[in-house]
Amino acid sequence: MRFADLVGTWTLHRIEITGATGVRILDQPSASGMLRYTADGQVWVILHVPDHQPDGLLSGAYTGTVTVEADTVIHHVSVGTTPFGAGSVLARNADLSADRTELCLSAPAAGVTARLRWQRTA
Question: Mind listing the pLDDT tens digit for each residue in 32-54?
Fold first, then answer.
């Protein structure tokens, strides 16, 4: 994957979380968010998942820089809300549709996998 393929604005249209056995824990089509990659290597993210967890672990915002290594997108957080604090390094497996209009970022952690599905808006 090339970083240039990611540059633009993306809107979150679904969050899916599955357990280690593949059982779906959460399928949240009402989640909202914006993701922007700029040509100079910056990333901006805002996420909101209504009625999910009282601790807000899936809601928040951050900004920083981004690098791409093969099919892994790595966000290096400069400023962010909990749980995305400054200094965090967020590696995500990336799957970009052939027409570059849908981006799926997934991250396995602690026996679950979160998949965020984004649609290109600009």
Answer: 899 999 999 999 999 887 765 54
